[in-house]
Design goal:
Strand content: 25-35%
Number of strands: 12
Shape: globular
Radius of gyration: 18 Å
Distance between the termini: 47 Å
CATH architecture: Alpha-Beta Complex
Number of domains: 1
Helix content: 25-40%
Strand order of the largest sheet: 7-11-10-9-8
CATH class: Alpha Beta
Bound molecules: coenzyme A
Number of helices: 5
Order of helices and strands: EHHEEEEEEHHHEEEEE
CATH topology: Ribosomal Protein L22, Chain A
CATH superfamily: 4'-phosphopantetheinyl transferase domain
Largest sheet: 5 strands, antiparallel
Length: about 260
């Protein structure tokens, strides 16, 4: 088998990693953050942008993260500009429990990624959102909670590739775990109803499960930081300390 040429790079960051000063915050982001009154949304938006700017800057060797601007297309998908010009790469973003991941794939091939924690998923959840073969995979798994979150994450990754997100019925994409591995990554694929396959990868670190999928074959993602801090990550929910913040309050507090 010939190795696919395309290889995403990826970076994980936690709330603790985000620089407390506002130097890295571009004007569009500052305006967006200032409008956010719920700490959870503020903190997720800020962390996600921090991780994405770092990932793009490291991948494309851009000196100042302030030059990297992440905006959302009308459907919500992230787009990246460097010094005002769209870059020739697709990025995918996700955050969960005070951790964010960004993947960068040079070129125009679409990629999606999704970070989940291993949490209980009810039978109703699995039967409502999973296909029958996926339900059987969960039922047969050594650890059904891990499997349910892994399959859910891979579905979300695929729905980000398709740019529909949860507007699309999650049973229209079916996840299969594959045998092949590459380092910490294991293979998976997501099949659309048309029969088209979106190849991807997954890994687990502690309570976190991370997946990705793409429009075509991709090599296992290469971490931009070694070892990835996700390997020692613990989920947290800092926003709960102060759920609401004053609109327009200065970056960075509260996180
Ligand atoms: C895509 C989606 C499944 C991700 O939700 P989630 O699991 O709660 O959140 P994650 O942290 O994993 O991912 C969030 C990131 O996904 C990306 N994203 C959002 N919509 C996307 C889409 N249509 N295609 C690809 N990526 C998308 C964004 O970068 C977002 O982060 P940001 O808003 O800070 O830029 C969800 O946002 C969704 O279903 N969106 C479409 C429907 C919707 O409500 N849209 C409203 C915005 S137009």
């Amino acid at each position: 088998m010939t190795m696919p040429v395309l290889q995403p790079t990826w970076l994980a960051a936690s709330l603790e990693d985000v620089a407390p000063d506002a130097e890295w915050v571009d004007e569009a982001l500052a305006a967006r953050l200032a409008r956010m009154t719920y700490t959870k949304r503020y903190s997720e938006a800020r962390l996600g942008r921090w991780a994405a700017k770092q990932a793009v800057a490291k991948t494309m060797r851009i000196e100042s993260v302030r030059d990297v601007v992440i905006r959302n297309a009308p459907d919500g998908a992230p787009e990246t500009l460097v010094r005002g010009r769209l870059i020739d790469a697709v990025i995918a973003m996700t955050d969960r429990s005070d951790w964010a991941v960004c993947m960068v794939l040079p070129g125009r091939t679409r990629i999606g990624c999704d970070l989940e924690i291993v949490e209980p998923r009810s039978r109703a959840f699995v039967s409502d959102y999973f296909t029958l073969p996926e339900q059987e995979t969960v039922a047969a798994a050594d650890d059904p909670a891990v499997m349910a979150n892994l399959i859910w994450s891979a579905k979300e990754s695929a729905l980000k590739v398709l740019r529909t997100g949860l507007r699309q019925d999650t049973r229209t994409v079916e996840v299969t775990l594959l045998e092949h591995t590459d380092g910490e990554w294991r293979g998976l694929e997501v099949k659309e109803q048309t029969g088209r396959i979106l190849p991807g990868w997954w890994l687990r670190h502690n309570e976190f499960v991370l997946t990705c999928a793409a429009e075509g074959p991709i090599a296992a993602p290469r971490s931009l930081v070694n070892p990835t801090p996700l390997a020692a990550a613990q989920p947290s929910h800092r926003w709960m300390e102060q759920p609401q913040r004053a609109a327009g309050s200065a970056v960075p507090d509260p996180r």
